[in-house]
Amino acid sequence: MTDTNVMANEFARNFYLKRKHFLKNSFESIEQLCLEEKHTEKVKNFISILLTDVFYSILLGLDGEASIGNIQQTYKIYDEADNLISDCGELEVEAYEYFIENKYEAENSKADFVAALTYRTTEQGGRKTPAVSGYRPQIKFAFEEMQTSGEQTFIEHKMVFPGEMVNAEIKLLAPECFENKLDYGMKFEFREGETVIGTGKILHIINKRLKKD
Predict the structure, then answer these.
(1) Count of Cβ atoms closer than 10 Å to residue 6 Cβ
(2) Which residues contact 6 (CB under 8 A, 6 or more apart)?
(3) Which CATH superfamily is domain 105-210 in?
């Protein structure tokens, strides 16, 4: 990384950590409302999406990739020591990795990879009940007949309802079966027996032994 890339990475990371702080405080307040569990999770999901959109949009606006009000332009950002943080384009890349691909969780996880999951609706043949974080369906990649259990630890969610999307840390039961076979953007199914519950896409590979050469 260049010095500017390093500064932009830190800037985006601090924005993401501030969002997590706000989210934690919001979740604590929501818990005090004593709503039904499914309603609590729906409100939390709404707040999470809202805060992501707000923080991400601000970073894109500062980078000139989105408008702030009615103005869209690139801003040069400096710290108090007059070090250049962002000139043009650096923030967009770092913001995407933190706010969309959960780079922070990938850097601090012992899972095998981070993935974006899409649960099928009940009408599509998916679950009839929500999945709770820690759910362990079978993982199936198109290139391999072998399946293995993949524990899903949802990021900032306790449960996911049929038809919803969530990012999660995936811990494989038999990671050795996929050494040097996985890559970013690779898609997979997760199943209960022969029933496809949903699909996923790899965002970050944490276990480097799995990374395709």
Answers:
(1) 14
(2) none
(3) Translation factors (2.40.30.10)
